[in-house]
Amino acid sequence: MSDSLVIIPTYNEKENIEKIIRKVFSLAVPFDILVVDDGSPDGTGKIVKTLQQDFPGRLYIEERRGKLGLGTAYIHGFRWALERDYAYIFEMDADFSHNPDDLIRLRDACLQGGDMAIGSRYIKGVNVVNWPMSRVLMSYFASVYVRFIMRIDVQDATAGFICFSRQVLEKIPLDKIKFVGYAFQIEMKFKSILYGFKVVEVPIIFTDRTEGVSKMSTRIFREAFFGVIQLKVGSWFKTYN
Fold first, then answer.
1. What PANTHER family does its record include (predicted)?
2. How much is the average pLDDT of 111-121?
3. pLDDT (tens digit per residue) in 16-38
């Protein structure tokens, strides 16, 4: 078993899932993969189960009934990882918007002292490919908004390409995480900082999916906008140690 687990949440990712799995397993550093599939009607789960024959003891799948949300998928994966001996637990999309080669760089950042390493689109300018300008601006200024409200020094607060050291996920009460979309990503970063963990950003190039359908929605952005205020106000009434 590797000391590193990559959690990939899926819903209708049949075009991408085999390619992303094979790419991760081709890396020089060994990673295990856990796919958390929300009952994909396109057969994503079946593809993963077939691939398990090629990668015994390295590829795992947890299947859930219905589309329950990105945040709950990661929480499910975090708990699964903590029941085992993984030292580093990763969040990564299935659609190649996150380059699997960067998994090694995120892991190295944690090996070198980071507790949480973020694959950042904005630490060195704006490194986004194939997004319309309206979405680039929305994402960039969402991070500006988060920094202003929360007073945290994270350039890419909504990033979803992350390496957690085990102790971060052991410390944060996962059953009290409130949000499921972009706000989930913000909440995990905010609480990691409040608990005193070292959060570092690693520059990446984010490339929008070329196959499959984006899961982004107005509801997810709305949750993030108001969720930031809720998280900040809530932090005034809680002690983190």
1. DOLICHOL-PHOSPHATE MANNOSYLTRANSFERASE SUBUNIT 1 (PTHR43398)
2. 96
3. 999 999 999 999 999 999 999 99
Amino acid at 80: W
The helix/strand/coil state of 70 is: helix
User: DSSP string covering 112-143, please?
Assistant: TT-SEEEEESSTTS--EES--HHHHHHHHHHH
Q: Which residues contact 100 (CB under 8 A, 6 or more apart)?
A: 20, 23, 24, 27, 92
Element (H, E) at 227: helix 218-235
Dist CA 69 CA 208 (whole Å)? 20
Rounded distance, CA 73 to CA 8, Å? 9
pLDDT tens, residue by residue, 188-216: 999 999 999 999 999 998 887 555 455 45
Domains and CATH numbers, the chain: 4-235 (3.90.550.10)
How far is Cα 59 from Cα 53, in angstroms, rounded to an integer? 9
Report yes or no on whether pTM surpasses 0.85. Answer: yes
Write the DSSP string, 22-42.
HHHHTSSS--EEEEEE---TT
